[in-house]
Design brief:
Structural class: mainly alpha
Radius of gyration: 26 Å
Strand content: 5-15%
Number of helices: 4
Strand order of the largest sheet: 1-2
Length: 198
């Protein structure tokens, strides 16, 4: 694959097949086919077909998401609430801003990579253990190694504590007492409404 920007072109990949992902895709396809056959024979009502409840990347692209039961509307007095075009424009603007943000983040990462590469290329010939800054007009830049984030492998910790205590229930109780849960927050999800033939 090739990523092309105004300042640079960068090749990346290739992406070799992943057996696990292929297995997931094949199992999903088999489940869809079996469900379709069950509905076709009348053994299952279309209203009883399970739908994906959480985020799924294909929902936004699905041609039939306009009346998909996953997107159950908020109703008032038995009628779905539908806001006026002012809110539709607001949602469209927010969606565009998020797309621009993603694009800007990609451009920023690409430019930072270029500057890092430049710094390494220009300082590789120096004998200094810690090369300094490189000036360019009214700016200067350098790179520095930053230690990786420290994380705790809970599965490994559970195994190690269980080896010491010889009691899996006591280990789980201990780990439960030590777990902290962050504050609940709300996530706003915006999804386009698609209709068949549109």
């Amino acid at each position: 694959m090739l990523s092309v920007a105004m300042s640079d072109a960068k090749a990346f990949g290739p992406y070799p097949p992943d057996r696990n992902m292929l297995g997931v895709c094949l199992r999903t396809a088999a489940t869809l086919w079996q469900t379709m056959q069950t509905v076709a024979t009348g053994s299952l009502s279309l209203d009883d077909v399970p739908t994906c409840q959480g985020f799924h990347p294909l929902c936004d692209w699905c041609d039939a998401n306009g009346d998909c039961p996953k997107f159950k509307p908020v109703c008032q007095d038995g009628e779905p609430i539908a806001l006026d075009d002012e809110y539709a424009e607001y949602l469209a603007q927010l969606t565009q801003l998020k797309e621009r943000k993603r694009s800007l983040e990609g451009d920023i990462a690409e430019m930072e990579d270029t500057l890092r590469s430049t710094w390494h290329r220009l300082t590789s010939a120096t004998s200094s253990q810690s090369p300094g800054w490189i000036a360019a007009g009214n700016y200067r830049f350098k790179t520095a190694a930053v230690p990786g984030r420290s994380t705790l492998d809970q599965t490994m910790l559970k195994e190690e504590v269980t080896k010491l205590t010889h009691d899996e229930q006591a280990t789980e109780a201990l780990l439960s007492r030590c777990r902290k849960t962050g504050a609940q927050h709300e996530r706003l999800t915006i999804s386009p409404i698609n209709t068949k033939g549109a």
